[in-house]
Write a structure and sequence with these properties.
Elements lengths: L2 H6 L6 E4 L2 E4 L1 H19 L4 E5 L16 H8 L1 H8 L5 E10 L14 E10 L4 H18 L9 E6 L4 E7 L4 E10 L2 H7 L5 E8 H12 E5 L5 E5 L10 E5 L7 H15 L16 H7 L3 E5 L1 H5 L2 E6 L5 E5 L3 H8 L5 H7 L1
Parallel strand pairs: 3-4, 12-13
Antiparallel strand pairs: 1-2, 4-5, 5-9, 6-7, 7-8, 8-9, 10-11, 13-14, 14-15
Length: about 350
């Protein structure tokens, strides 16, 4: 998807032009927030590493007095953790720190923001394990980004080694985009002592640039298709974990609205909120169409009609496959929770 097509999404824009500047809309801010949360979750699952995360007011806006050097901030905030580790612990430690990127090579000129908020991860490890972790993190990050693509085998994410194999970068490349999403650097021996003042460990620094990552996700998720009737259709195939809303509710076109249907919709919405599932605001007087749900990138749309009252059945439409299945209200909550990976199948068996 080109930058022009991103700006052409007028009905539900992800980027708007205001006074000649391109700014993020609330939809994009939510996706950016989801990217940060999922990236931290992925890093936190590294085996045999104790992870510390600095407190954030927001994952997408910098905290007060944020450092511009992620490693310096990490050492300032977590020197006590490093000291305990260096005094005898054999387990590696990792620290996730928010910082402001001031390097022109990483800033995105397409989006006008006061600061480009980045997330930095530093892994402090024993010297004999450093090369293992450097290679493992490369595979971890490349796989994580590629899995977010709607077509992983045809994704535009690519990586390369730089600076005598001590720096690894992940980019997103299309005809009109060349965005650096992540950089990883390996500090060893004299470089650790000179740069950080540490003498008894090696350090791997990994920084992800959220604005660039957001643009790559929007570009990669866009899909347009023209049917035989000549009617075009646009979809945003966001990964479920990144979608700004997971579920939308609407009524079938042929149905006549009534109070019972509205109450049923509200009941089902409340049942999903118990699991903190983000739902597109439901307004019966101004219903959203299925096509609009696709443009917003909503993975599942719940469709209510007369059968919902007569038989207790609702339609559940999948964005990616365009298929609709009938789900009984008694199994509605657990079905959607399973599809959205909110709960594990074993918990369903134990509870129901």
């Amino acid at each position: 998807m080109s930058l022009k097509k991103i700006l052409s999404l007028k009905k539900y824009p992800f980027i708007q032009q205001i006074n000649g500047s391109n700014v993020l809309t609330p939809l994009s801010q939510q996706i950016k927030q989801n990217i940060a949360i999922e990236w931290i979750k992925n890093i936190s699952r590294l085996p045999s590493v104790e992870i510390f995360v600095t407190p954030f007011n927001s994952y997408t806006e910098p905290i007060v007095n944020t450092h511009t050097n992620s490693l310096k901030a990490i050492l300032d905030n977590y020197s006590k953790h490093y000291r305990v580790w260096s005094e005898g612990s054999t387990q590696s430690i990792g620290v996730i720190q928010q910082f402001v990127c001031c390097n022109d090579n990483h800033l995105n000129s397409f989006i006008n923001t006061n600061t480009n908020v980045c997330l930095g991860f530093a892994l402090f490890c024993q010297k004999h394990e450093s090369l293992y972790w450097f290679q493992k993190l490369q595979g971890n990050q490349y796989q994580w980004f590629r899995n977010l693509s709607k077509f992983p085998l045809k994704s535009k994410f690519c990586c390369e080694l730089q600076e005598s194999d001590s720096k690894w970068v992940l980019n997103y490349k299309t005809q009109d985009m060349n965005l650096q999403l992540l950089s990883m650097k390996y500090f060893s021996n004299s470089s650790v002592e000179t740069t950080l003042g540490l003498t008894d460990c090696h350090v791997i620094s990994c920084n992800v640039y959220l604005d660039n990552t957001l643009l790559s996700i929007i570009s990669d998720s866009y899909t347009d298709k023209v049917y035989k009737t000549g009617k075009p259709k646009k979809k945003m195939k966001f990964d479920t974990s990144l979608a700004p809303f997971k579920v939308g509710f609407t009524f079938r076109d042929s149905v006549k609205q009534n109070g019972i249907l509205k109450d049923l919709a509200e009941y089902l919405i409340e049942s999903l909120k118990l699991f903190n599932i983000s739902i597109l605001p439901f307004t019966p007087n101004k219903l959203i169409s299925i096509e609009s749900c696709d443009e917003l990138g909503i993975p599942y749309t719940v469709i209510l009609d007369d059968e919902s009252i007569e038989k207790g059945v609702v339609g559940l439409r999948n964005r990616d496959t365009d298929t609709e299945e009938s789900v009984h209200i008694s199994r509605f909550q657990q079905t959607l929770c399973l599809y959205l990976n909110v709960i594990h199948p074993s918990s369903i068996r134990n509870k129901y």
